[in-house]
Amino acid sequence: MKAFTYQRANTTAHAAAATAKPGAKIIAGGTNLLDLMKLQVETPSQLIDINHLPLDKVEETSEGGLRIGALVRNSDLAADPRVRQRYGVLSRALLAGASAQLRNKATTGGNLLQRTRCYYFYDITKPCNKRSPGSGCAALEGFNRIHAILGTSEQCIATHPSDMAVAMRALDANVETVDRQGDTRAIPIAEFHRLPGNTPEIETSLKPGEIITAVTLPPPPPGVQVYRKVRDRASYAFALVSVAAIVDSARGRIRSARLAFGGLALKPWRSPQAEQQLVDAAPDTSTFNAAANALLEGARGFGDNDFKIPLVRRTLHSVLAETTGA
Amino acid sequence: MEMNSPVGPNALDAPGIVGKPIDRVDGRLKVTGGARYAYEMQQDNVLYGFVVEASIGKGTIRSIDTRAAEKAPGVVLVLTHRNTPTQGTGNHREAHPVLTGPQVTRYGQPVAFVVAESFEEARAAAYLVDVKYDWSSGKYALRANVNEARVPKPNDAPAADSAVGDFAAAFASAPVQIDVTYTTPLQSHAMMEPHATLAMWDGNKLILHTANQMLNQGQQVIATTLKIPVENIRLISPFIGGGFGGKLWVNADAILASIAARQLKRPVKIALTRQQIFHVTTHRSDTIQRVRLGTDREGRILAIGHDVFSGNLPSEQTYEDAALQTRTLYAGPNRLTRHRLVPLDIPVASSMRAPGEAVGLMALECAMDELAEKLNLDPIELRMRNEPSEDPEKHIPYSSRHLVACMQEGARRFGWDKRNPKPGQVHDGRWLVGMGMAAGTRGNPLRLSKANVRLDADGKATVRMAMTDIGTGTYTILAQITAEMLGLPMERVVVELGDTSFPEAAGSGGSFGAGSSGSALFEACDALREKLARIAGIDPATARFADGNIASGEKSMRLTDLVGTGLDADGEIQPGRNNKDFSQQSYGAHFAEVGIDQDTGEVRVRRMLGVFTAGRVLNAKTARSQAIGGMVFGVGAALHEGMTLDARFGYFVNRDLAEYLVPLHADIPAIDAIFLAELDNESNPLKSKGIGELGICGAGASIANAVYNACGVRIRDYPITLDKLLTGLPMRA
Ligand SMILES: Cc1cc2nc3c(=O)[nH]c(=O)nc-3n(C[C@H](O)[C@H](O)[C@H](O)COP(=O)(O)OP(=O)(O)OC[C@H]3O[C@@H](n4cnc5c(N)ncnc54)[C@H](O)[C@@H]3O)c2cc1C
Ligand code: SF4
């Protein structure tokens, strides 16, 4: 860990302004950032502690949704009765993540911004375009069991590890921010995380000095909500594949379906084409197949992660069967 | 005492404290933080060290620039091969020289050691050490280099090969044959406490607070390495946060801290980081195991063969002796076992909990399951048909063997008769459910140990030995033995371990700890009883010790009136003829039920039962905990654990506990372990046998067999992860 200075932010505007300085970095729960600093994957010269900002509330919005402060802890969010009643998929996704101790510390903003778990990204002696642009991607021909099958590039095949973000993607959440000028904006979660392309080091659409203040959820869509996380052990493991599904069906017909996937790409993945296959269709194997085919259009394995292609297909079947009662 | 003859009736035979499920005497200290581990020892003026690891698998250091590190805040010393004194050499069990030269023989080899006023300063400066390497091509992967295998020649292990009869001919002509190859992955001990040392010098005497399982052995290794007399070295290790073999030998932490402390004339402290442990210390080699079983049509084994490949550094002879149990577990006239070692340029492979059996049984016991299916026999029936009447290779009797009873009792308790022998038949919603069983066995070695017990005028007994308690319950069983032998309440017994200034002891490893240290203590207590009886004028043969008194007939005296200012006695145990004339093994039968998510291939254990015989159980609670802990290890070995080697760099890719997966609470369901009553008169004065590793032996195989029974897919490459199962599972309609 490199020596750094520490500053406590008193206001959101102060935090944004301070973060705009080169080398400055926000610390929220610290559960990801500190690990990376110990390994010198992250080497900020200044930490801006935002834990004292009043961003720790979950509030109703006038539209009938929820506004979740950036500092709301994962445990608190999962346990919030409004979340449990109306956004079960989010509560389940949160509880499927990390461990109780980590969830007690982890924040909503930090969770969205947690970095990939790619082994080579974590080891500064190995080539990694995300950590050190232009150095190469050690995962491409290395051990890539946990890596992406969709939206990859020759530069980077990492995945985004968050469970929470997958549920939020299914819920069409918006990420609210403030920048150093004090300007605010709401970024649709679909546009928040970026695919690697030629710049895997740029992970989100946040600008320098722009910080997350909240995540808003629109009113809950109709339908059954399910979060299915497939993993190597029963808890405290990242998703190999996960599916957040909100499916509304009745009398042998699917009315609407929202499907978001974790473990497939560098962002929570949605496929409008796959969802389209389900709308107005009968919940049966051929429909599910059509959705899976649409989802996996262009999917590519890199060796150790080839299994994710059949795995996501099967998991999708399983989740659709569960949500439609098929 | 040398174990040369059977043990007759003795003071432990009457029901008493020994055997009771007594809580750990150190439990309170541990949960309140009062038990201090090596890194927690406070010392004035202490410095902190941090290791810089080689980031190549093989090659030479072209240049090493330490200037920036030396100038960094707080740094007082940067050791590299250029300024480190020459040290003694040997294999990893004999010596552990560090920073010996520019050659890099393995990934993670320490190439520099940064010492600073604080841990943070040492670590930050460690990243400033600029090392440039010339790479040479290395051999890293076991499978890719299996053609280079050679016969290992260790000086402290059984011979690599064994043969009885004519295996090849018997196997070729056997009416029923199984010929299967199983592979197990690289494993890491993943104990909770990292390797840590606080080293300080007092003149030419070295004191080390260090996490080490076998202190007297450690003393030797350090003496050889640092070229100083053994008497000048004191190792202190009263509490150890798990070892599983990872702390059997001396690791780089102890040597680096000692050398730096000597140069700086200040105490130096070091703990390896979790990530460093994977490369800097030892691991269990991966294995390739071919098992061949040839039987008649009734399932009687005619030929049994087990070939094992494992890897290690070219300079090492230690191999994973995974065919050991195959030499003794089942009958059969024609036998062949062979171990081959592949020289690899990766970190040192060494012992990990139940070296040999832990992974050997994962091959043998699954092959037996495959055989049972082929013969259309119940797996327990198959094993009973091959129950030997004597050790089939050594042709000596078993000291005690109740494997059949374990299997039968286990079957009854587990509901084995409800198992559908046809795989893939039992459904529970999305889940396919199956049951499996496996037998287990583990050798019962005995090692030289000594003990001293002292009774003071205040009625307190103090036991001293250089034994260790690595979390297993040694303190507790030794207190029980003392209390029982001297007729004292547990509260009056103080056990002091983990210090080489106490009498030499075996340490904790290879399941020899309790039997060896407990027997030495038994002998010491026996000697003290005799002394007390003589002072009391009582015939030692008729003396009874209870409630702080010695009594015989009508006569009764308080012990405290006999000891003056204190009375002590020594005891000693040594292996003898019994260890050659008897095949000494503990036994177990494992039963597992698993569910497999038919959609995703996720395997989850539903319940497990282990039924064991291991001679006298010294403490029903700590024994059960050991057995259950071993079974959990088995779950990990079967389903989760494995280091992945990246053969481009010669390194282990997954190096923390988020990526090296061990089972968690959520993975461990209802799990139970029971011990059947047994006394082993040939093993030691306690009539006990080792249990520290027994729980793991066979546990993984029972899970693998349950997986097969659940879904009909046989995975022969551990761990059994969902990606391997997936394609074999039919989609639900
Ligand atoms: C062993 C382990 C297992 C885990 N398993 C899972 C899992 O299964 N599923 C899962 O989803 N997650 C898992 N996690 C990740 C965990 O969810 C994240 O570490 C956590 O959510 C990060 O939140 P934090 O508040 O601690 O972030 P921090 O570590 O404080 O920050 C993370 C990043 O976000 C930035 N940041 C934080 N807040 C803001 C803000 N308001 N505005 C702008 N930037 C900000 C920081 O600068 C930093 O770059 C695991 C973590 C560990 C260590
Ligand atoms: S996959 Fe991405 S994060 Fe991983 S090594 Fe390649 S570039 Fe780095």
Q: Can you give a write-up of this model?
A:
The complex is a heterodimer of chains A (326) and B (733). With 326 residues, chain A is of the alpha+beta class. Chain A has twelve helices and twelve strands. In chain A, strand 6 and strand 7 (184-188) form a beta hairpin. Chain A starts with a strand and ends with a helix. The relative contact order of chain A is 0.13. Chain B has 733 residues and is an alpha+beta fold. Chain B contains 16 helices and 29 strands. Chain B has a seven-stranded mixed beta sheet, sandwiched between helices. A five-stranded mixed beta sheet of chain B has the order 7-15-14-13-8, with helices on both faces. In chain B, a hairpin with a 2-residue loop joins strand 9 and strand 10 (205-210). In chain B, helix 8 (357-375) runs parallel beside helix 15. The radius of gyration of chain B is 27 Å and the shape is globular. The N and C termini of chain B lie far apart (69 Å). The chains are: A alpha+beta (326), B alpha+beta (733). The interface between A and B is large, with 35 and 39 residues. The structure holds flavin-adenine dinucleotide and iron/sulfur cluster (SF4).
Write down the overall mean pLDDT of chain A.
97
The helix tally of chain B amounts to 16
Bound small molecules, by name, code or SMILES, are:
flavin-adenine dinucleotide, iron/sulfur cluster
Order of the strands making up the biggest sheet of chain A? 4-5-8-6-7
Poorly predicted ranges of chain A: none
Largest sheet of chain A: 5 strands, antiparallel
